[in-house]
Amino acid sequence: MHKIKALQLQYEDKINHYLHYTTIVIFFFLPITRSFPDSYVISFLFFLIYILLILRGNYIHYFSLAFAHPLTKAFFYFFIIHIIWLFGSENIHEALHTWIKYEYYSLYPLLFFSFIDKRFCHYFLSAFLAGAFFSEVLSYLMQFHTIPMEYSIHIHIPFINHDTLHYFYRSARGGPTPFVEHSATSFMLAITASILLIKLFTDKKINYLYLFFFATISMNIFFIQARTGYILYFFLLGYIIIFLRKHHHLSSLYFPKKLLYFIPLLAIGISIFMYNQNGIFKQRLEITQKRITNVIQTGDLSAMPRLLLVKQALVTIEDNFPFGVGSGDALKTLQSYPENQNTEITSGFIQNVHNQYLDILLQFGIIGLLVYLYLLYKIFTYKHPNMSTQRYLIKQIVAISMLYIGFLATFWAYIPTIIVMLLIITTAENKILKRLPEINKKTVFKLFLFILLSYTIGAIQ
Protein backbone atom coordinates (compact mmCIF):
# COMPACT_ATOMS: atom_id res chain seq x y z
CA MET A 1 0.00 0.00 0.00
CA HIS A 2 2.85 2.39 0.84
CA LYS A 3 4.50 1.64 -2.50
CA ILE A 4 1.24 2.43 -4.34
CA LYS A 5 0.88 5.74 -2.51
CA ALA A 6 4.52 6.57 -3.24
CA LEU A 7 3.98 5.89 -6.96
CA GLN A 8 0.80 7.96 -6.94
CA LEU A 9 2.64 10.86 -5.33
CA GLN A 10 5.50 10.54 -7.81
CA TYR A 11 3.27 10.56 -10.90
CA GLU A 12 0.45 12.78 -9.56
CA ASP A 13 1.38 15.88 -11.55
CA LYS A 14 1.99 13.90 -14.74
CA ILE A 15 -1.43 12.26 -14.45
CA ASN A 16 -2.97 15.71 -13.99
CA HIS A 17 -1.34 16.71 -17.27
CA TYR A 18 -2.79 13.65 -19.01
CA LEU A 19 -6.21 14.52 -17.61
CA HIS A 20 -5.97 17.98 -19.17
CA TYR A 21 -4.84 16.64 -22.54
CA THR A 22 -7.74 14.17 -22.56
CA THR A 23 -10.13 17.01 -21.76
CA ILE A 24 -8.70 19.04 -24.66
CA VAL A 25 -9.63 16.19 -27.00
CA ILE A 26 -13.12 16.04 -25.44
CA PHE A 27 -13.54 19.74 -26.19
CA PHE A 28 -12.61 19.13 -29.82
CA PHE A 29 -15.34 16.51 -30.13
CA LEU A 30 -17.85 18.54 -28.10
CA PRO A 31 -19.33 20.56 -31.03
CA ILE A 32 -19.36 17.61 -33.46
CA THR A 33 -20.85 14.79 -31.38
CA ARG A 34 -24.46 14.02 -32.25
CA SER A 35 -25.38 12.22 -29.04
CA PHE A 36 -22.85 13.01 -26.35
CA PRO A 37 -23.34 10.23 -23.80
CA ASP A 38 -24.00 7.60 -26.50
CA SER A 39 -20.86 8.37 -28.51
CA TYR A 40 -18.26 5.60 -28.43
CA VAL A 41 -15.53 8.20 -28.87
CA ILE A 42 -16.71 10.16 -25.84
CA SER A 43 -17.20 6.96 -23.85
CA PHE A 44 -13.60 6.00 -24.57
CA LEU A 45 -12.29 9.43 -23.49
CA PHE A 46 -14.34 9.42 -20.28
CA PHE A 47 -13.11 5.90 -19.59
CA LEU A 48 -9.54 7.23 -19.79
CA ILE A 49 -10.43 10.05 -17.38
CA TYR A 50 -11.91 7.60 -14.86
CA ILE A 51 -8.81 5.36 -15.08
CA LEU A 52 -6.48 8.34 -14.64
CA LEU A 53 -8.46 9.58 -11.63
CA ILE A 54 -8.22 6.15 -10.02
CA LEU A 55 -4.48 5.99 -10.66
CA ARG A 56 -3.93 9.54 -9.34
CA GLY A 57 -5.36 8.76 -5.90
CA ASN A 58 -5.73 11.42 -3.19
CA TYR A 59 -9.49 11.25 -3.83
CA ILE A 60 -10.73 13.11 -0.76
CA HIS A 61 -8.43 16.09 -1.38
CA TYR A 62 -9.33 16.58 -5.03
CA PHE A 63 -13.06 15.99 -4.73
CA SER A 64 -13.16 18.29 -1.71
CA LEU A 65 -11.69 20.97 -3.98
CA ALA A 66 -14.36 20.21 -6.58
CA PHE A 67 -17.25 20.25 -4.13
CA ALA A 68 -16.05 23.52 -2.60
CA HIS A 69 -16.90 25.29 -5.87
CA PRO A 70 -20.31 27.02 -5.57
CA LEU A 71 -21.48 25.79 -9.00
CA THR A 72 -20.74 22.18 -8.06
CA LYS A 73 -23.13 22.46 -5.13
CA ALA A 74 -25.86 24.13 -7.20
CA PHE A 75 -25.65 21.46 -9.91
CA PHE A 76 -25.55 18.73 -7.26
CA TYR A 77 -28.79 20.01 -5.68
CA PHE A 78 -30.44 19.79 -9.11
CA PHE A 79 -29.06 16.27 -9.44
CA ILE A 80 -30.53 15.27 -6.07
CA ILE A 81 -34.00 16.47 -7.17
CA HIS A 82 -33.91 13.92 -9.99
CA ILE A 83 -33.06 11.15 -7.53
CA ILE A 84 -35.74 11.99 -4.95
CA TRP A 85 -38.51 12.41 -7.54
CA LEU A 86 -37.74 9.00 -9.05
CA PHE A 87 -39.86 7.56 -6.23
CA GLY A 88 -42.89 9.41 -7.60
CA SER A 89 -42.44 8.06 -11.10
CA GLU A 90 -44.92 5.53 -12.50
CA ASN A 91 -42.10 3.68 -14.26
CA ILE A 92 -38.89 3.98 -12.24
CA HIS A 93 -36.88 1.80 -14.63
CA GLU A 94 -37.72 3.95 -17.66
CA ALA A 95 -37.28 7.19 -15.73
CA LEU A 96 -33.92 6.02 -14.38
CA HIS A 97 -32.79 5.11 -17.90
CA THR A 98 -33.76 8.57 -19.20
CA TRP A 99 -32.11 10.32 -16.27
CA ILE A 100 -28.85 8.38 -16.57
CA LYS A 101 -28.75 9.03 -20.30
CA TYR A 102 -29.55 12.73 -20.38
CA GLU A 103 -29.30 14.28 -16.92
CA TYR A 104 -25.97 13.18 -15.47
CA TYR A 105 -24.29 16.28 -16.90
CA SER A 106 -25.21 17.75 -13.49
CA LEU A 107 -22.30 15.74 -12.08
CA TYR A 108 -19.74 17.08 -14.56
CA PRO A 109 -18.66 19.94 -12.24
CA LEU A 110 -17.90 17.44 -9.48
CA LEU A 111 -15.81 15.41 -11.93
CA PHE A 112 -13.95 18.11 -13.86
CA PHE A 113 -13.39 20.62 -11.06
CA SER A 114 -11.39 17.86 -9.34
CA PHE A 115 -8.56 18.32 -11.85
CA ILE A 116 -9.19 21.35 -14.11
CA ASP A 117 -6.53 24.06 -13.86
CA LYS A 118 -7.96 27.48 -14.69
CA ARG A 119 -4.80 28.36 -16.66
CA PHE A 120 -5.72 25.72 -19.26
CA CYS A 121 -8.92 27.58 -20.26
CA HIS A 122 -7.31 28.97 -23.44
CA TYR A 123 -6.37 25.50 -24.66
CA PHE A 124 -9.83 24.10 -24.03
CA LEU A 125 -11.44 27.00 -25.89
CA SER A 126 -9.02 26.55 -28.80
CA ALA A 127 -9.96 22.87 -29.04
CA PHE A 128 -13.68 23.74 -28.97
CA LEU A 129 -13.20 26.34 -31.74
CA ALA A 130 -11.18 23.83 -33.79
CA GLY A 131 -14.04 21.30 -33.58
CA ALA A 132 -16.57 23.99 -34.51
CA PHE A 133 -14.38 25.07 -37.44
CA PHE A 134 -14.18 21.48 -38.67
CA SER A 135 -17.99 21.26 -38.56
CA GLU A 136 -18.17 24.62 -40.33
CA VAL A 137 -15.97 23.49 -43.21
CA LEU A 138 -18.00 20.33 -43.77
CA SER A 139 -21.24 22.32 -43.55
CA TYR A 140 -20.15 24.68 -46.35
CA LEU A 141 -18.92 21.78 -48.48
CA MET A 142 -22.33 20.12 -48.05
CA GLN A 143 -24.18 23.37 -48.74
CA PHE A 144 -22.40 23.88 -52.08
CA HIS A 145 -22.62 20.17 -53.00
CA THR A 146 -18.85 19.73 -53.01
CA ILE A 147 -19.28 16.63 -50.85
CA PRO A 148 -22.34 14.38 -50.44
CA MET A 149 -24.84 15.00 -47.63
CA GLU A 150 -23.52 11.92 -45.83
CA TYR A 151 -20.48 9.73 -45.98
CA SER A 152 -20.09 6.28 -44.47
CA ILE A 153 -17.35 3.69 -44.40
CA HIS A 154 -17.70 -0.07 -44.13
CA ILE A 155 -15.48 -1.45 -41.37
CA HIS A 156 -14.69 -5.16 -41.54
CA ILE A 157 -12.19 -6.77 -39.17
CA PRO A 158 -12.16 -10.57 -39.79
CA PHE A 159 -10.05 -11.74 -36.84
CA ILE A 160 -12.46 -10.25 -34.28
CA ASN A 161 -15.58 -10.88 -36.40
CA HIS A 162 -16.37 -7.15 -36.52
CA ASP A 163 -18.54 -5.81 -39.33
CA THR A 164 -20.32 -2.45 -39.26
CA LEU A 165 -21.32 0.60 -41.29
CA HIS A 166 -19.88 3.74 -39.72
CA TYR A 167 -20.97 7.25 -40.69
CA PHE A 168 -18.11 9.74 -40.83
CA TYR A 169 -20.68 12.53 -41.07
CA ARG A 170 -24.40 12.54 -41.81
CA SER A 171 -26.88 15.26 -42.67
CA ALA A 172 -29.59 15.75 -40.07
CA ARG A 173 -33.05 16.27 -41.62
CA GLY A 174 -31.58 17.02 -45.02
CA GLY A 175 -29.88 20.27 -43.97
CA PRO A 176 -26.18 21.20 -44.25
CA THR A 177 -25.50 20.13 -40.67
CA PRO A 178 -22.95 17.28 -40.74
CA PHE A 179 -23.14 16.07 -37.14
CA VAL A 180 -26.10 17.46 -35.18
CA GLU A 181 -29.65 18.49 -36.16
CA HIS A 182 -30.21 22.09 -37.23
CA SER A 183 -31.59 23.58 -33.98
CA ALA A 184 -28.69 22.31 -31.87
CA THR A 185 -26.17 23.24 -34.58
CA SER A 186 -27.48 26.81 -34.72
CA PHE A 187 -27.17 27.00 -30.92
CA MET A 188 -23.55 25.84 -31.14
CA LEU A 189 -22.79 28.32 -33.94
CA ALA A 190 -24.29 31.25 -32.01
CA ILE A 191 -22.17 30.35 -28.96
CA THR A 192 -19.06 29.92 -31.13
CA ALA A 193 -19.59 33.26 -32.92
CA SER A 194 -19.88 34.96 -29.52
CA ILE A 195 -16.68 33.35 -28.22
CA LEU A 196 -14.85 34.46 -31.36
CA LEU A 197 -16.10 38.02 -30.94
CA ILE A 198 -15.01 38.08 -27.29
CA LYS A 199 -11.56 36.74 -28.18
CA LEU A 200 -11.22 39.27 -31.00
CA PHE A 201 -11.53 42.15 -28.56
CA THR A 202 -9.83 40.70 -25.48
CA ASP A 203 -6.91 38.59 -26.73
CA LYS A 204 -3.53 40.28 -26.46
CA LYS A 205 -2.71 39.38 -30.05
CA ILE A 206 -4.92 40.35 -32.99
CA ASN A 207 -6.10 37.23 -34.82
CA TYR A 208 -7.70 37.99 -38.17
CA LEU A 209 -8.51 34.30 -38.60
CA TYR A 210 -11.09 34.78 -35.82
CA LEU A 211 -12.68 37.62 -37.81
CA PHE A 212 -12.89 35.43 -40.93
CA PHE A 213 -14.29 32.52 -38.90
CA PHE A 214 -16.80 34.86 -37.27
CA ALA A 215 -17.99 36.08 -40.70
CA THR A 216 -18.37 32.53 -42.11
CA ILE A 217 -20.28 31.39 -39.04
CA SER A 218 -22.56 34.42 -39.28
CA MET A 219 -23.44 33.42 -42.86
CA ASN A 220 -23.77 29.73 -42.05
CA ILE A 221 -26.31 30.35 -39.29
CA PHE A 222 -28.68 31.69 -41.96
CA PHE A 223 -28.07 28.68 -44.20
CA ILE A 224 -29.51 26.48 -41.46
CA GLN A 225 -33.26 26.26 -40.95
CA ALA A 226 -33.20 27.03 -37.22
CA ARG A 227 -34.97 30.13 -35.96
CA THR A 228 -33.64 29.46 -32.47
CA GLY A 229 -30.12 30.30 -33.60
CA TYR A 230 -31.10 33.49 -35.44
CA ILE A 231 -32.48 35.13 -32.29
CA LEU A 232 -29.74 33.86 -29.97
CA TYR A 233 -27.04 35.07 -32.36
CA PHE A 234 -28.26 38.68 -32.38
CA PHE A 235 -29.06 38.67 -28.66
CA LEU A 236 -25.56 37.49 -27.66
CA LEU A 237 -23.80 39.84 -30.06
CA GLY A 238 -25.81 42.77 -28.75
CA TYR A 239 -24.92 41.88 -25.14
CA ILE A 240 -21.20 41.57 -25.93
CA ILE A 241 -21.01 44.88 -27.79
CA ILE A 242 -22.90 46.76 -25.06
CA PHE A 243 -20.69 45.21 -22.36
CA LEU A 244 -17.44 46.06 -24.16
CA ARG A 245 -18.54 49.65 -24.78
CA LYS A 246 -19.61 50.09 -21.16
CA HIS A 247 -16.65 48.33 -19.56
CA HIS A 248 -13.89 48.96 -22.08
CA HIS A 249 -11.58 49.95 -19.22
CA LEU A 250 -11.64 46.30 -18.03
CA SER A 251 -10.05 45.15 -21.26
CA SER A 252 -7.29 46.45 -23.47
CA LEU A 253 -9.48 45.95 -26.56
CA TYR A 254 -6.45 45.19 -28.71
CA PHE A 255 -8.63 44.93 -31.80
CA PRO A 256 -9.56 48.36 -33.29
CA LYS A 257 -12.38 49.83 -31.21
CA LYS A 258 -14.16 51.09 -34.33
CA LEU A 259 -15.00 47.47 -35.10
CA LEU A 260 -17.46 47.59 -32.20
CA TYR A 261 -19.62 49.55 -34.63
CA PHE A 262 -18.64 47.44 -37.64
CA ILE A 263 -19.57 44.05 -36.12
CA PRO A 264 -23.34 44.71 -35.73
CA LEU A 265 -23.42 46.29 -39.22
CA LEU A 266 -21.69 43.17 -40.57
CA ALA A 267 -24.20 40.87 -38.85
CA ILE A 268 -27.22 42.88 -40.04
CA GLY A 269 -25.77 43.12 -43.55
CA ILE A 270 -25.27 39.36 -43.73
CA SER A 271 -28.84 38.69 -42.54
CA ILE A 272 -30.29 41.10 -45.14
CA PHE A 273 -28.15 39.53 -47.86
CA MET A 274 -29.25 36.01 -46.88
CA TYR A 275 -32.90 37.08 -46.77
CA ASN A 276 -32.68 38.47 -50.30
CA GLN A 277 -31.29 35.17 -51.59
CA ASN A 278 -34.77 33.61 -51.25
CA GLY A 279 -33.24 30.68 -49.39
CA ILE A 280 -34.00 28.79 -46.19
CA PHE A 281 -33.66 31.90 -43.99
CA LYS A 282 -36.41 33.76 -45.83
CA GLN A 283 -38.61 30.64 -46.02
CA ARG A 284 -38.37 30.03 -42.27
CA LEU A 285 -39.28 33.62 -41.45
CA GLU A 286 -42.25 33.57 -43.83
CA ILE A 287 -43.52 30.25 -42.45
CA THR A 288 -43.28 31.62 -38.91
CA GLN A 289 -45.15 34.78 -39.89
CA LYS A 290 -47.95 32.80 -41.56
CA ARG A 291 -48.35 30.49 -38.56
CA ILE A 292 -48.48 33.36 -36.07
CA THR A 293 -51.01 35.21 -38.25
CA ASN A 294 -53.16 32.07 -38.52
CA VAL A 295 -53.11 31.53 -34.73
CA ILE A 296 -54.08 35.16 -34.08
CA GLN A 297 -56.90 35.12 -36.62
CA THR A 298 -58.37 31.68 -35.89
CA GLY A 299 -57.22 30.91 -32.34
CA ASP A 300 -56.33 27.40 -33.57
CA LEU A 301 -53.06 26.29 -31.99
CA SER A 302 -52.71 23.22 -34.21
CA ALA A 303 -50.64 25.30 -36.66
CA MET A 304 -48.05 25.79 -33.90
CA PRO A 305 -47.73 22.50 -31.96
CA ARG A 306 -45.34 23.98 -29.40
CA LEU A 307 -47.92 26.57 -28.33
CA LEU A 308 -50.45 23.75 -27.96
CA LEU A 309 -47.87 21.90 -25.89
CA VAL A 310 -47.37 24.92 -23.60
CA LYS A 311 -51.13 25.33 -23.13
CA GLN A 312 -51.63 21.67 -22.19
CA ALA A 313 -48.51 21.64 -20.02
CA LEU A 314 -49.91 24.50 -17.94
CA VAL A 315 -53.13 22.51 -17.44
CA THR A 316 -51.14 19.45 -16.34
CA ILE A 317 -48.98 21.52 -13.99
CA GLU A 318 -52.10 22.93 -12.34
CA ASP A 319 -53.53 19.42 -11.88
CA ASN A 320 -50.31 18.15 -10.27
CA PHE A 321 -49.33 21.22 -8.28
CA PRO A 322 -47.16 21.61 -6.23
CA PHE A 323 -45.04 18.42 -6.40
CA GLY A 324 -45.22 17.40 -10.07
CA VAL A 325 -45.63 13.94 -11.59
CA GLY A 326 -42.18 12.46 -10.91
CA SER A 327 -38.90 12.06 -12.82
CA GLY A 328 -39.28 11.17 -16.48
CA ASP A 329 -43.08 11.29 -16.58
CA ALA A 330 -43.67 14.77 -18.04
CA LEU A 331 -44.52 13.93 -21.67
CA LYS A 332 -46.20 10.65 -20.77
CA THR A 333 -48.60 12.47 -18.43
CA LEU A 334 -49.40 15.04 -21.13
CA GLN A 335 -50.13 12.28 -23.62
CA SER A 336 -52.52 10.57 -21.19
CA TYR A 337 -55.01 13.51 -21.23
CA PRO A 338 -58.07 12.70 -23.42
CA GLU A 339 -58.05 16.14 -25.07
CA ASN A 340 -54.51 15.52 -26.31
CA GLN A 341 -55.45 12.39 -28.23
CA ASN A 342 -55.11 12.66 -32.03
CA THR A 343 -52.99 15.81 -31.70
CA GLU A 344 -49.29 16.49 -32.35
CA ILE A 345 -48.65 15.69 -28.68
CA THR A 346 -49.52 12.00 -29.13
CA SER A 347 -48.50 11.61 -32.79
CA GLY A 348 -44.87 10.82 -32.00
CA PHE A 349 -43.71 14.00 -33.73
CA ILE A 350 -43.22 15.72 -30.37
CA GLN A 351 -40.74 13.79 -28.23
CA ASN A 352 -40.29 16.24 -25.36
CA VAL A 353 -41.95 19.23 -23.73
CA HIS A 354 -39.79 21.77 -25.63
CA ASN A 355 -39.54 24.04 -22.59
CA GLN A 356 -37.07 23.42 -19.80
CA TYR A 357 -39.02 25.38 -17.18
CA LEU A 358 -42.35 23.68 -17.91
CA ASP A 359 -40.61 20.30 -18.04
CA ILE A 360 -39.15 20.87 -14.56
CA LEU A 361 -42.49 22.07 -13.20
CA LEU A 362 -44.20 19.01 -14.67
CA GLN A 363 -41.70 16.58 -13.18
CA PHE A 364 -40.62 18.18 -9.89
CA GLY A 365 -43.20 20.85 -9.17
CA ILE A 366 -42.44 24.21 -7.62
CA ILE A 367 -39.57 22.79 -5.51
CA GLY A 368 -37.73 21.60 -8.61
CA LEU A 369 -38.23 24.95 -10.34
CA LEU A 370 -36.88 26.85 -7.32
CA VAL A 371 -33.78 24.61 -7.26
CA TYR A 372 -33.26 25.22 -11.00
CA LEU A 373 -33.72 29.00 -10.61
CA TYR A 374 -31.18 28.89 -7.77
CA LEU A 375 -28.77 27.16 -10.18
CA LEU A 376 -29.30 29.91 -12.77
CA TYR A 377 -28.82 32.57 -10.08
CA LYS A 378 -25.49 31.06 -8.98
CA ILE A 379 -24.27 30.88 -12.57
CA PHE A 380 -25.19 34.50 -13.36
CA THR A 381 -23.78 35.94 -10.13
CA TYR A 382 -20.58 33.90 -10.02
CA LYS A 383 -17.45 36.01 -10.34
CA HIS A 384 -14.05 35.11 -8.91
CA PRO A 385 -11.86 38.07 -7.86
CA ASN A 386 -9.09 37.06 -10.28
CA MET A 387 -11.43 36.19 -13.15
CA SER A 388 -10.38 37.73 -16.47
CA THR A 389 -12.78 39.81 -18.55
CA GLN A 390 -12.66 37.18 -21.30
CA ARG A 391 -13.62 34.30 -19.03
CA TYR A 392 -16.33 36.37 -17.34
CA LEU A 393 -17.87 37.38 -20.69
CA ILE A 394 -17.85 33.83 -22.03
CA LYS A 395 -19.44 32.63 -18.80
CA GLN A 396 -22.14 35.29 -19.17
CA ILE A 397 -22.99 34.48 -22.80
CA VAL A 398 -23.23 30.78 -21.88
CA ALA A 399 -25.51 31.65 -18.94
CA ILE A 400 -27.70 33.87 -21.17
CA SER A 401 -27.89 31.04 -23.71
CA MET A 402 -28.94 28.62 -20.97
CA LEU A 403 -31.66 31.00 -19.80
CA TYR A 404 -32.91 31.67 -23.35
CA ILE A 405 -32.79 28.16 -24.77
CA GLY A 406 -34.78 26.86 -21.79
CA PHE A 407 -37.87 28.64 -23.14
CA LEU A 408 -37.58 26.85 -26.49
CA ALA A 409 -36.22 23.41 -25.71
CA THR A 410 -36.07 20.71 -23.08
CA PHE A 411 -32.41 20.07 -22.36
CA TRP A 412 -31.04 16.91 -23.87
CA ALA A 413 -27.49 15.66 -24.08
CA TYR A 414 -25.91 17.99 -26.67
CA ILE A 415 -27.01 21.43 -25.47
CA PRO A 416 -26.49 21.09 -21.70
CA THR A 417 -23.16 19.36 -22.23
CA ILE A 418 -21.82 22.36 -24.17
CA ILE A 419 -23.25 24.72 -21.55
CA VAL A 420 -21.86 22.87 -18.54
CA MET A 421 -18.43 22.19 -20.04
CA LEU A 422 -17.96 25.85 -21.04
CA LEU A 423 -19.15 26.94 -17.59
CA ILE A 424 -16.62 24.61 -15.97
CA ILE A 425 -13.58 25.94 -17.82
CA THR A 426 -14.58 29.60 -17.46
CA THR A 427 -15.34 29.38 -13.72
CA ALA A 428 -12.47 27.08 -12.66
CA GLU A 429 -10.73 28.58 -9.62
CA ASN A 430 -7.82 26.30 -8.73
CA LYS A 431 -4.26 25.92 -9.96
CA ILE A 432 -3.93 22.14 -9.94
CA LEU A 433 -0.77 21.74 -12.02
CA LYS A 434 2.61 22.36 -10.46
CA ARG A 435 3.89 23.64 -13.77
CA LEU A 436 2.00 24.79 -16.85
CA PRO A 437 3.36 23.10 -20.00
CA GLU A 438 3.81 24.96 -23.25
CA ILE A 439 1.58 23.68 -26.02
CA ASN A 440 4.03 23.71 -28.96
CA LYS A 441 3.83 22.22 -32.47
CA LYS A 442 5.02 18.85 -31.20
CA THR A 443 2.30 18.77 -28.55
CA VAL A 444 -0.35 19.81 -31.09
CA PHE A 445 0.77 16.99 -33.38
CA LYS A 446 0.49 14.48 -30.52
CA LEU A 447 -2.98 15.80 -29.68
CA PHE A 448 -3.94 15.42 -33.35
CA LEU A 449 -2.80 11.78 -33.25
CA PHE A 450 -4.75 11.32 -30.00
CA ILE A 451 -7.88 12.69 -31.73
CA LEU A 452 -7.41 10.26 -34.65
CA LEU A 453 -6.82 7.36 -32.25
CA SER A 454 -9.92 8.24 -30.20
CA TYR A 455 -12.06 8.52 -33.33
CA THR A 456 -10.72 5.22 -34.70
CA ILE A 457 -11.44 3.38 -31.46
CA GLY A 458 -14.95 4.88 -31.42
CA ALA A 459 -15.50 3.91 -35.07
CA ILE A 460 -14.67 0.23 -34.65
CA GLN A 461 -16.80 -0.32 -31.52
What proportion of the residues form beta strands (DSSP E)?
Answer: under 5%
Class of secondary structure makeup: mainly alpha
Number of E strands? 2
Low-confidence stretches: none
Largest sheet properties = 2 strands, antiparallel
Q: Which series of helices and strands comes N to C?
A: HHHHHHHEEHHHHHHHHHHH
- Indicate the mean pLDDT: 81
Inertia-based shape: globular
State the end-to-end CA separation: 36 Å
* Rg, nearest Å: 23 Å
| Order of adjacent strands in the largest pleated sheet | 1-2
Number of continuous helical runs: 18
Helical amount among residues, as a percent range?
Answer: 55-70%
Report on this model:
A two-stranded antiparallel sheet has the order 1-2. It is mainly alpha-helical and about 450 residues long. Helix content is about 65%, strand content about 5%. The chain is globular. A hairpin with a 4-residue loop joins strand 1 and strand 2 (about 160-170).
